[in-house]
Amino acid sequence: MQIDARNRQATLSVGEFSAFTPYATPGFGGVSAAWRAQLGTEWHQRIQRESADAGEGMQDEVSLSGALAWRNWTLHLSGRIDQFKASPTAPHLREIKTLSEPVPLDREAILERYPAYPLQLLTYRELLIQAGRSDLGRDPAAETFRLELLFVEIGSGLTQSLILDKTYDGLFVDHLDTLVDYLEAKQERLARLRSLSVRPAYDTPRPGQEHIQAELAEAFSQSQITLLEAPTGYGKTGVAWEYAARRLAAGQCDRVLYLTSKSTGQTEALTRLKALLSKATPSKSPESDSLSSTSPPATFWHIRNKQEHCIHHEFRCSRQTCPYLAELHEKWKRSGLQRLYLLSQDELDLETLRAEGRVTGICPYEIMRAGLGQRDIWVGDYNYLFSPSSARLLADQADFDPARTFLIVDEAHNLPSRVASAYTYEFSVHPIYAALDDLNANKAPAALRNHFKILASLLTVGGNSPPRSSTSDSEVDPATEADFRHSIGKVSELLNSEPLAYEELQPDTLELLFQISSAHAGQLRGELKHQLWSPQPGTFRLECIDASKLIQSQLSQYNGALFLSATLTPLESYLDEIGLAPEGGTAAPRASTHPPISHLTPPAPWRSEAYDVAIDLRVDTRFKSRRTHLPTTAATIAQAAEFAGPTIAFFPSYAYAKQAYEHLQLKHSELRVALQPRAGGSLADRNAYLEETLAFHDVLILILGSSYAEGVDTLGGKAGTAIVVSPALPEMNFIQEAKREHHDNLGHSGFERAYLHPGIQKVNQALGRLVRSPEHKVKALLHCQRFADPKTKRLLDPLYQSKSYIHEESDLREWLHK
Q1: Would residue 726 be called left, alpha or beta, if left means φ above 0 and alpha means ψ between -120 and 50 degrees?
Q2: In the predicted model, what is the mean pLDDT of residues 362-368?
Q3: What is the 3-state secondary structure (H, E, C) of 490-531?
Q4: What is the reported pLDDT for 28?
Q5: What is the side-by-side order of every strand in the sheet holding 300-302?
Q6: What is the rounded distance in angstroms from the CA atom of residue 176 to the CA atom of residue 178?
Q7: What's the burial of 524, exposed, middle or buried (CB within 10 Å: 0-12/13-18/19+)?
Q8: Binning pLDDT at 50, 70 and 90, where does residue 585 land?
């Protein structure tokens, strides 16, 4: 649906109009939706052929469009009637609908479960009347129309013909009112946004922020996408919210979508947003004169996942098992939940949603879905845009239009790996057998069950292949891979062509069917590159190793996109990962299919004197050498802690960190040493742990890339010295080697793209967290010979590309005391 609120017009299909509802209605989606669409098409074609053979004189798939005026709104509608027969006395309209439940259905059942079906016929009749179709024979307003719903029970092929009588006529008027109420609410929402008076996010600009709003405006005047690369502590989040609010107020967009990879980032973003909105005031304009002075300047919602909302005794999202998903249509009509969405500019907290869910009998997640469209700003995880299992949440919103939505992507350096992870699928033999039992119990088609048996056999045999070399022990042999991909494809095809009692299947089976269908669709898409491997016996993993084209196709749909990160270097590599690299290198013109890009790197002058960095050439921290050099590593950490504690030591893995921790405990027992917990816990838990540990310990050991090293802002100014042990290159394994080969084939340095870049990015992220404001200073030691290698060193932030080298212990003492 496209809404032009200024001119009070909406453009939508008859199907969209008939199915419109201001509240959420759950559906199976995924394979069930694809299967229903395929079966629906086949039954349509069959009935149309039978109608032609019987000489009924019906026209098939008759296109019809027109404009309906209602309450000063104009609705532009278009669609195709399944079957139409012109007549001078009683024109005949027929819609063919497939059902998975037994027929016949009575009026109450139809209105409760399928109200859109009679609405479609009533809408087509109204369009015919408004159009005054000459092929009706005379004045269409005087006609007695024959409106027929022909239901087809998919499993048996039984049919039910239902002729709509005058008792259905009121549905159409009521539905027009429902839609126009929604459109009026949107018009009021946009008028309120256009009246925003946006004040600076920071009363006193931080160093480097003085001209950033003008620079952003200039960048977006030339580019659809802008990368804002600035260090931790610069204030990127506040700057982004201020710019987005200005776009909303100027009418350049109708909604803002803020996405990040970590819940900690969402919490920080909400804090900054609330601070900005608390300063905003509505300004008078012709459109806003009628708005209440108490109306919030802008409203927002923090999108949480389903499990956080759940109030059932078990988390299984199925109408078969969860009473909070049953009979939603009737529950919504008597719930009175609309009041909730008008009371506060804040998102409704989870406890309120859960309480309302218990009272109304409606799933709290569905309550959230219903209110989402009435909010101006959405804050959530990358999954809600890029994951095939979560993207429906936004896509199903009635007026979600990417072309009118401004996108903010925070922690943007994590986007490529997160999207690739969302399109990675794992299949294990035991869930396949459990699904097969469920399919057998529900008498699924024999062909489908046979292919599940084949999948189980392939996983059993192919996932237990004998070990080979260290880089190929997870490889699936080509014949088994071909058979597996073929079986995945056959299962997906059968799901689209064979009847299946989806409502009776277990939630885990439904999830597996969706996963298979999604995996097959992913293989067919030219936007994704997958590699099949076996991480453990009985398991295959279809790993996405390149999602760049898919990312690019999503980004190109948006009104504008602002990427925020402290570490996008090297830029050419990052642009490749998000599908926006120019053809032929950074100096070449961009491909015409790519949206233009700007890259802003505002100054952060306080950082130039904040770091004193040295490279320690005494040790080699590669896996084969690290145990030999472990005593030197432990002694170095101890010396740093004695000189200027507390010392934070960053390690590439938990196993390596634990070895160092145990050595420190044994050889340097006078030091109070802490090793981060394996489990991350909540943001509050992590902050509390770091505050307490740094206050009462001499050494804190953290893991590079962990939520403790990257997911908190507590480390700024807390460390006297920091030691980064190893460049943190990923472990060499089958999938990393597949990525290396893929990049080599694309003409890049495969080793740099698969190993060096992700490792050094973690180093840059960790060191960046240590300095967040002008008063923060830190000594940082890069503890490995590899940091001096030119290929490695050039990937470091320029501030960390030290010319100070530690050759022996006396050099370390001199540097520490300098």
Answers
A1: left
A2: 90
A3: HHHHHHCCCCCCHHHCCHHHHHHHHHHHHHHHHHHCCCCEEE
A4: 46
A5: 300-302, 377-381, 255-260, 405-409, 560-565, 225-229, 597-600
A6: 5
A7: exposed
A8: very low
Q: How far apart are CA 562 and CA 279, in angstroms?
A: 23
Query: For residues 701 and 777, what is the distance between their CA atoms, to the nearest angstrom?
Result: 19
Whether the CB-CB separation of 732 and 790 falls below 8 Å is answered with no
Give the CA angle between residues 658, 661, 666 to the nearest 5°: 125
The pair of structure tokens assigned to 759 is 């490792």
CA distances from 465 to 424, 426, 480, 535 (A): 22, 17, 11, 11
pLDDT band of 671, cuts 50, 70, 90: very high
The tally of CA atoms less than 13 A away on the side-chain side of residue 277 is 21
Contacts of 46 (CB under 8 A, 6+ apart): none
Amino acid at 534: S
Distance CA 453, CA 11 (A): 48
SS3 50: helix
For the residues 334-343, what does the mean pLDDT come to?
Answer: 74
pLDDT band per the 50, 70, 90 thresholds, residue 607: confident
Summary mean pLDDT of the chain = 87
> How would you classify the pairing of strands 529-536 and 560-565?
unpaired
For the segment 86-122, what is each residue's pLDDT rounded down to a tens digit? 887 789 999 999 887 889 999 888 888 899 999 999 9
CA torsion through residues 297, 298, 299, 300, sign:
negative
Distance of CA 429 to the CA centre of its chain: 28
- Per-residue model confidence (pLDDT) at position 620: 95
Question: Could you identify the residue written with the tokens 């042990």?
Answer: 725
Q: What are phi and psi of 206, to 5 degrees?
A: -70, 155
- Give the Cα separation of 452 and 437 in Å (integer): 10
The Cα–Cα gap between 402 and 341 comes to 23
User: Rounded to whole angstroms, how far apart are CA atoms 627 and 634?
Assistant: 11
pLDDT at residue 26, rounded to an integer: 53
Q: What are phi and psi of 461, to 5 degrees?
A: -85, -50
Q: In the predicted model, what is the mean pLDDT of residues 119-138?
A: 78
Convert the pLDDT of each residue in 157-171 to its tens digit: 889 999 999 999 999
Contact 283, 196 (CB under 8 A): yes
Q: Which DSSP symbol is given to 224? A: S
| CA-CA-CA-CA torsion sign (31, 404, 410, 345) | negative
Q: Which tokens is 34 given?
A: 């694809």
Contacts of 35 (CB under 8 A, 6+ apart): 495, 496, 497, 498, 499, 500, 502
Q: Count Cβ atoms within 10 A of the Cβ of residue 170 and give its class: 0-12 exposed, 13-18 middle, 19 or more buried.
A: exposed
